[in-house]
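User: Okay, second chain of the day. Same drill as before: sequence in, structure tokens out.
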Amino acid sequence: MKNKIELSREFKTQTTKAIASILLFALIYLVLFILAIGLTALCIYSGILLIVTIPRLITIALGLGLASLGILILIFLLKFLFKSHKVDRSHLLEIKKTDEPELFNLIDEIVKEVKTSFPKKVYLFTDVNAAVFYDSSFWSMFFPIKKNLQIGIGLVNSVTKSEFKAILSHEFGHFSQRTMKVGSYVYNVNQVIHNMIYENESYDKIIHGWSSISSYFAIFVVLAVKIIEGIQWILSKLYEIVNKSYMGLSREMEFHADEIAASVTGYEPLKSSLLRLNLADHSFNNLLTYYEGKIPQNLKSSNLYKEHSFIMNFLAKESDIAIANGLPEVTFQELNKFNKSKLVIKDQWASHPSTEERIEKLEKSNITAEYIDYLPASSIFADIEKTQKELTERLFQNVEYSDQPDLIALDSFKEKYIEEYQSNIFPKIYNGYYDNKNPINFNIKSTNLSTETIEFQSLFSDEKVELVYSAIALQNDIETLNQISKKLIPIKTFDYDGIKYQRKQSKELISQIKLDLIKMNEQIQENDIAIFNFFVDLEKKQSKDAKLNLMYSGFFDFEKVIENKYEIYTNISNELQFINYQTPFEHIQLNFSKIRPLEAKLKSELREILRNDLFQPEITQAIKENFELYLSKDWKYFGNEKYFDKNLEMLFTVLNNYSFLLSRGYFLLKKELLDYQEELAKNDNDLHF
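Assistant: Same drill. Structure tokens below.
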């Protein structure tokens, strides 16, 4: 079947562009190198001539400085050759056929069907992914190299046997693509460019050392630096050309590999896995975040993948996604449920097409499956639980615990996870209305209670939820169009609501969308007021204290000041950016003195947080101790020509905790308000849930 699959015209075009861009880089680099050799020869000749013609101490210094000008530029252009490339593979677990015979038999079967070569090595790793990679080095551009395959156990955990075969067939589709070699070239071109633009610490020491010998040398070092800055500007432009061209090819390679996979298994298994993998990946990252929060408690997992399966299915059920064959059955509609954007941009920097584009192309191939195996992919492995535990241990091995960590039993994990999950979501009765929006501010005192009978279901209907997400989409589209207008997104044309626009038309379009957004927000605010009136009416009906007015007022008041509170965090973080760069000592002291007034504001806010009952459930013992230590005195962060790392670490921890507590405070106020409304609704005999 692979032989019947022809390369598309777009694939061939993108291949030509990618190769042409690499050749352009090689040509321009060669020209720069030849010019550097010529400049070096001219500078050395001129320097010697100056010394011989006027043999004085000053001319000797000037002659040596002049000779060094070309040499410094030549060294800059060649320094990437002397960089050692060490690839960290400690996170990978190499396996052989004796370890996993059934897996290797499957790989062998796919290799024969796709008519490609067997991978040099097969690795397992932790993630929800699979990939092909080269052992790339500078010399790999000139000599043939074999590809390696890596398989994520998170992926194995998320698919059926047929889906797993389809995904591996996709990867071996890449094996069969000679254009993979282009990727190796691009990788090495990027390494060269990155080295010359960003990895200059050793080189900077050389030129600073040379310029410090004599002020005459310094003159030519300044000239060399200016020339090098020009070279770096050229290289940055070449980086854009090479990578944009390759990304276009990369997207076509994905479509082609998908078609090869469909020729092996039919398109259905690949389609169903593509639809599920976003949820699987989100679930795995959610799990990692959960355990990141357990580090202070010295807790870890013995088998992440059993917990991953639980979270994936739990989140699916929470979103009303059906479970089939032990896995969530995500539909195309579910994937795009909240995507209401009308803006379509061809992302030139995307290495992969969108899931929607891939599925559309797969369905057009019309290559259907003859047989689908719904058994879990994990059943292919000899001892999947042992492998899962080994990779779990690898993932946790670099985590620093204050004491010997304890393992969480699966049942205990499920109970604690659900408890934490429930404490961080809004009640289901709202149908997702508040998940990504807050009540829009309105004047509570001037709100008149409606005499109309309001139906609870109408307040949180699918139409009202769709209105909310349409408004969010409009706001996001406005922000993106602003970036297009300011040329921050380098595109000339885009589509909006099925109509093609030029970049110069984006400002006019923004004005139109803003009018639509104003109308939409007015409708949402009108509904929010109706919601308020509905629950105030319930509160009176149940003869409760007038608590709702105070809760809404408190939430709106907090909303007004939170931006200013966040500004303190943002300003200090921005002012501290200088510590990431080489900065003169006198400037360091001056920079820290600018932060003092901001620190005074931060300390005032921290004292308020420690007193405020709202934040108490979120303030851990570690946060409290760190705040109190920071508040105990004025700290110094630099002295005797060195940074005080422990003090800086404390400051950054305080800033991160401050930002976290602000976001949690905002969330808790909102949740308290919505939980109270839910209580009112559930206490009403006329409402049924």
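The radius of gyration is 31 Å.

User: Thanks, on to the next one.
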